[in-house]
């Protein structure tokens, strides 16, 4: 038997991911783009509802307060997404709420000066103002790092090898938002997971008028089917005598969003009153801003690949971080109970639909703004049980993680040095945050527990984040361990041409600012 040729065994590395129907600057028809944009809006609802649903009751807020926070968060998400796709990195990324901010926000909620307020509504308002003040101050971190191009300088220490654990753990690090949540209501979650995989992968060859409708709109179709099925179970009384936790996760009438939502309400800055400022709260929140910066850096790299674009040049990445800082500032001014970061699930949906079009994401931002103003209609979609979203996350988070692993094609994985760095960074990136989570669950406080609350919040927030731990480990090892003779093994010859705007001719096509703004902000 003839020996196989080398090209038959291995696959050549590719700058841009192949197999996408629409890349970053190509657009589907308007009808298809609107439907795809609505699909991204539906997916973004999961995090937008989950964060306020958890935090608002802890603050003393009622269902009306929760609805207003959800509406405000979606409104600001829409504005931030438009700003990022127009003037930031220009990648097709939804800018949503971030779980990274929950640690310092919970610390603010438990601050003795706030928790001892007896009137629940007054406690809610005072806590909201304290969170707003912390977000406004801490947003300066990303604004300064981004617009001063300091983050561009820092990114010069990143290599394809160093980015693999970071991007991979942007997806893998959210494992607790996936099947552990599906398991709370398996009769809804498991059918959703199976149907979504079947429609998006096994039945993707099904075409209607030359459109792969099941692959392209798998999320919309399966959410509609399973939501109707969940409503049928609820109406038939299947959960009438089940435990409270099961009812919360399975029933379609437990969110209390529709009845509490106003018909029309336009969120506006300082709607909760004047923010209050506390140095300790702001320092704790700065850690969450740094975590958001790291997570978004990994997500931007993943989004560029799933949009069939080249990796964003250093100054474009830094520009995007600057606009994300503006987004956190807006979150503080409006009062969203969360900072801003790239929505990982929406990045995954780019790959699932094979549509990386920027226009689709801008349309989804329009839906966020529109339905956040029309409260009743937005609340209807926001009442989808979170178990349904968790089932989709199992696929989409995994897809983003695999994009991170795909950067290994530019490195030499026959090098013991590279195997060591990749393995240790991935393992510690999962293991350290898991230790912090387990410790907190048992002791009701993080491992960092000193008399300085801001210091505790800072350390606990940093080490709660898998991508941040992975970045610290991977970048340190990659730049200190035999780094002088390993440039080729690390993938630097491939990476270096994408560091600067003029390093590759395709950068101008993907990342040039609109309205001829590059005349006033020339790329470096």
Automatic annotation (TrEMBL):
One GO cellular component, as annotated: membrane
Keyword annotations of the record: Membrane, Transmembrane, Transmembrane helix
Localization per record: Membrane
UniProt-listed InterPro entries: MetI-like_sf, NCS2
Coiled coil is among the record's keywords: no
Main location: membrane
Keyword Membrane appears in the UniProt entry: yes
Positions of transmembrane segments: 38-58, 130-150, 157-175, 181-205, 217-239, 360-382, 388-407, 419-436, 458-477
One annotated GO molecular function: transmembrane transporter activity
Superkingdom of the organism of origin: Eukaryota
Entry coiled-coil feature ranges: none
Membrane topology designation: Multi-pass membrane protein
Pfam families assigned: Xan_ur_permease (PF00860)
Stated family: Belongs to the nucleobase:cation symporter-2 (NCS2) (TC 2.A.40) family.
Name this protein carries in UniProt: Nucleobase-ascorbate transporter 2
Gene source species: Cucumis melo (Muskmelon)
């Amino acid at each position: 038997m003839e020996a196989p040729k080398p090209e038959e065994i291995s696959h050549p590395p590719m700058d841009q991911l192949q197999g996408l129907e629409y890349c970053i600057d190509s657009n589907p028809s308007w009808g298809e783009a609107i439907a795809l944009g609505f699909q991204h809006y539906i997916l973004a609802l999961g995090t937008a509802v989950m964060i306020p649903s958890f935090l608002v009751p802890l603050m003393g807020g009622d269902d009306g307060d929760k609805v207003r926070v959800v509406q405000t968060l979606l409104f600001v998400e829409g504005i931030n997404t438009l700003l990022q796709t127009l003037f930031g990195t220009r990648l097709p990324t939804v800018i949503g709420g971030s779980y990274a901010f929950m640690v310092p926000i919970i610390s603010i909620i438990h601050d003795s000066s706030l928790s001892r307020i007896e009137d629940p509504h007054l406690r809610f308002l005072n806590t909201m103002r304290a969170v707003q003040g912390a977000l406004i101050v801490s947003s300066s971190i990303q604004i300064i790092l981004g617009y001063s191009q300091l983050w561009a300088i820092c990114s010069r220490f990143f290599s394809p090898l160093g980015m693999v654990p970071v991007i991979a753990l942007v997806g893998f690090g959210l494992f607790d938002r996936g099947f552990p949540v599906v398991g709370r209501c398996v009769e809804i979650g498991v059918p959703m997971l199976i149907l979504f995989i079947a429609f998006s992968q096994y039945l993707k060859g099904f075409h209607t008028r030359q459109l792969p409708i099941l692959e392209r709109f798998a999320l919309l179709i399966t959410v509609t089917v399973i939501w109707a099925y969940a409503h049928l179970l609820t109406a038939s009384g299947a959960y009438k005598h089940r435990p409270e936790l099961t009812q919360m996760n399975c029933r379609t009438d437990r969110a209390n969003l529709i009845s509490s939502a106003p018909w029309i309400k336009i969120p506006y800055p300082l709607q909760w009153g004047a923010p209050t400022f506390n140095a300790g709260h702001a320092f704790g929140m700065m850690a969450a801003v740094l975590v958001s910066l790291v997570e978004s850096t990994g997500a931007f790299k993943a989004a560029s690949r799933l949009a069939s674009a080249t990796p964003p040049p250093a100054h474009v990445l830094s520009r995007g971080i600057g606009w994300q800082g503006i987004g956190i500032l807006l979150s503080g001014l409006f009062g969203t109970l969360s900072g801003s970061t790239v929505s990982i699930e929406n990045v995954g949906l780019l790959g699932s639909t094979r549509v990386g079009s920027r226009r689709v994401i801008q349309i989804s931002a329009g839906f966020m703004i529109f339905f956040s103003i029309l409260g009743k209609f937005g609340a209807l979609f926001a009442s989808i049980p979170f178990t349904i979203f968790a089932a989709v996350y199992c696929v989409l988070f995994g897809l983003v993680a695999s994009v991170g692993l795909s950067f290994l094609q530019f490195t030499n994985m026959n090098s013991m040095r590279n195997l060591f760095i990749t393995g240790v960074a991935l393992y510690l990136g999962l293991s350290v945050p898991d230790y912090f989570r387990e410790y907190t669950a048992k002791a009701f406080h993080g491992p960092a527990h000193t008399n300085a609350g801001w210091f505790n919040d800072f350390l606990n927030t940093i080490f709660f984040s898998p991508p941040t731990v992975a970045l610290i480990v991977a970048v340190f090892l990659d730049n200190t361990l035999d780094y002088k003779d390993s440039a080729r093994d690390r993938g630097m010859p491939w990476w270096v041409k994408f560091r600067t705007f003029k390093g590759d001719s395709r950068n101008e096509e993907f990342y040039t600012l609109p309205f001829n703004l590059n005349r006033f902000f020339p790329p470096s």
